[in-house]
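Continuing the batch. This is chain 6 of the set; chains 1 through 5 are on the previous pages. Same settings as before, nothing changed between runs. Recording input and output for traceability.
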Amino acid sequence: MIVDDQSPPGSWQREIDLMPWKYNSPQEEKVRLALAELRSRGLWEIARVLEQEIVTLRAERK
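Output for chain 6:
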């Protein structure tokens, strides 16, 4: 693990606020609930494909 011990406290807040896809964001919650809805209707394979695509897109953004 790398620890940033040179930046002042709070210096990363602006960059964190600008992130298009934050963890536990309302958008992430909506996606999680939508995937759960698909699974509850028996559409497991479709939910799996969509979830894999989301993971791939997130990895490409990094």
